[in-house]
Specification:
Blueprint: E1 2-7, H1 12-24, E2 28-34, E3 54-58, H2 64-74, E4 78-81, H3 88-93, H4 95-117, E5 125-131, H5 155-174, E6 178-183, E7 185-187, H6 196-205, E8 210-213, E9 219-224, H7 225-238, E10 244-247, E11 252-254, H8 255-269, E12 281-284, H9 299-305, H10 313-326, H11 328-334, H12 338-347
Parallel strand pairs: 1-2, 1-4, 2-3, 4-5, 5-6, 6-10, 7-9, 8-12
Antiparallel strand pairs: 9-11
This protein binds nicotinamide-adenine-dinucleotide and 2'deoxy-thymidine-5'-diphospho-alpha-D-glucose (DAU).
Amino acid sequence: MKKILITGGAGFIGSHVVRLFVNKYTDYHIFNLDVLTYAGNLENIKDIEKKPNYTFLKADINNANEIDTLFDTHQFDDVIHLAAESHVDRSITDPLAFIQTNVLGTVNLLNSAKRIWKNNLSSHLFYHVSTDEVYGSLHDGGYFLETTPYDPQSPYSASKAASDHFVRAYYNTYKIPVVVSNCSNNYGQNQFPEKLIPLFINNILNKKPLPVYGKGENVRDWLYVVDHARAIDVVFHKGKVGETYNIGGFNEWKNLDLIKVLCKVMDQKLNRTQGESEKLITYVTDRAGHDLRYAIDANKIMKELGWEPSLQFEEGLNITVDWYLNNKNWLENVTSGAYLKYYDEQYSVN
Ligand code: NAD
Ligand code: DAU
């Protein structure tokens, strides 16, 4: 039985990846390693926790000894690495936490894999899940290709870029078989409500102001999270060792346009007067160093590996809004306690 370590599987994207692998590959044993930060929530994977091919390991990738011991005990065949600090605004207030987890934590995993796999390297794979933000910001049209030079602009994207470089350096230097994918903005169920779409759903629900950074002109390319999980499955099984695959939805939205669509959908679903939620839009101080536009060219994964997004954005947004409206307890649980302190600090100056 193949033993696959998935890190960060209690988080947003990781939980969808764990679910897909546990249900689809009953001949694999899936180990979900997560330290359960504020963003990690075992509720996200409650439906699969009792499956015989699933084990949860509460551990910190920053603790090299602990990670080494787990590799010794379980002899993982492959790694799919998603654990990270993932929110740009938090990286602006606390960059060191991002360097620690995203860079050093990744190197700890690489070191354990290198040690355990040294006698038969070619039968293993270290899959590193990364972001399109490593390519920087697009100003004059065009798309991010796999060959676009790295130009990270925030502490978050700098830490992810550094981790990508280490993964490739371990391939080049120690011949660890690696593959990297860089994905655009994900949305969908179980996303922590610090990110744009779930934050605004929660605020609309509670008739709170919708804090639009700057003029709302920044552009993001949105992909439904389950389609990202499907892409990770395809890259893991069919991707070429040493290669990079960009993943995106060819689905660009200016923030303000997306927010207006979301307001409309929410008004409909909550039986509110059309236009009511839009009135909550409040322009606030821009994010420091705010990247203007991200846009992925996903042709390589589509042509070489046969992946494509399954959902149109409107459909995905509908499913997402319905999920949050039907899971108000989940929202209430994750927005109590420490989150309230974060929220007050993050949005207090405006
Ligand atoms: P998330 O913040 O929702 O989840 C991160 C998970 O990692 C949490 O469960 C957390 O507990 C865990 N974790 C954090 N530090 C850890 C540590 N030291 N040890 C063990 N576990 C730890 O993040 P997400 O949005 O699901 O992103 C997952 C990955 O995908 C990240 O690597 C991120 O950079 C990347 N990514 C995210 C997006 C997006 O739009 N969210 C897009 C492209 C790539
Ligand atoms: O592109 C992939 C990246 O997408 C991932 O690597 C990151 O982990 C993920 O967090 C996301 O980064 P963004 O910064 O693009 O996502 P966020 O949801 O924080 O913001 C989306 C846009 O909305 C961005 O232009 C900032 C803006 N925004 C965000 C928040 C939280 C606001 O206008 N107001 C807000 O309150």
